[in-house]
Every structure is written in structure tokens, then in C-alpha cells.
Amino acid sequence: MGRFKFCPACGAAAPLVRETRRMKYRYKGETLAVRQPGDWCRACGEAVLNHADVQATEDKLNAWRQRINKEIAVMIKQVRKELGLTQEEMAEIVGGGKKAFAKYESGTVIPSEAMIRLIRLLGKRPELLMDLRSMKKAA
Ligand SMILES: [Zn+2]
User: Fold this and answer.
1) CB atoms within 10 A of CB 70
2) Are 86 and 133 found together in one domain?
């Protein structure tokens, strides 16, 4: 039996179960499955993680997030170059401050998932750039 008699997430009066489960983490549109130890609720499926539980997976999760962040930075620069735009022009068209793309491309700021999707879309369908430009003019 685990340490919890009630689930802190859903309030179910069933004791949480101490075990290791396959758990999916999501980050910037990607998913990673890890073997996550924790106290699990049979009612809602939530887990309570203690410090050791977090430590068991944090190195793997951090390395994974860093790899994704690097890939995003490289992708953004590549798409912008393919579109033949400066960082400032790119920010004017898709949104973001003057320095936004310098920060995205150096990896100091990771854009929102929505911004990442928009940039990926422009990479696949560069002709949409004209539509975005006209939206900017209309605004
Ligand atoms: Zn629960």
C-alpha cells in the first residue's frame, strides 16, 4: 500500500498504488514514453510523484526537451532562410517582437506550440506567406 489513502487529484477514497507505469510526457507537440515510478490512483489515473520518482526520469526528460528545443531552433532558421526573410521581416509577418526570431534561432526563447506549428506550416507551404502578408496589411 502507498502513502496516500485518498487521491489528491480526484479525491477518490481508494488507496494509491505504488508502482512503475509507462507514462507519456508531451512537450511542444512531441510525446515521450518513460517508465515512471509513483503512487497511482486507480480511479483517475493520476500519479503522485515524490522527489526520487521525479529524479528517476528527469535526466531523460531534460535531455529529450533540450534535443527538441535545438531541433526547433534549427527548423525556424531553416524555414526563415528558405522564405528569404530577415529575422525582423519574419517577426513582422508571423508575429512576435523585433528580437523574437533572434531569440528563437539561438534557442534562448522557445516559441509557443502555436508559433512552431505556424512556422512548420510555412516551411511546407511557402505560398501561404502571401496570405499572411495580406493579413498583416489588412490589420
Ligand atoms: Zn484520482
Assistant:
1) 11
2) yes
C-alpha of residue 72 to centroid of ligand 1, in Å: 35
Expressed as residue numbers, the domain containing 45 is: 14-52
pLDDT of 5 = 80
CA of 13 to the centre of ligand 1 (A): 9
8 A C-beta contact, residue 93 and residue 136: yes
Neighbours of ion ligand 1 (CB under 5 A): 7, 9-10, 12, 41, 43-44, 46
- Decide if 37 is inside a domain: yes
What spacing in Å lies between the alpha carbon of 19 and ligand 1's midpoint?
Answer: 15
Q: Which helix (H) or strand (E) holds 66?
A: helix 51-83
pTM of the predicted model as reported, rounded to 2 decimal places: 0.78
Q: What is the pLDDT of residues 22-75, one digit of tens each?
A: 999 999 999 999 999 999 999 999 999 999 999 999 999 999 999 999 999 999
- Does residue 25 belong to any structural domain of this protein? yes
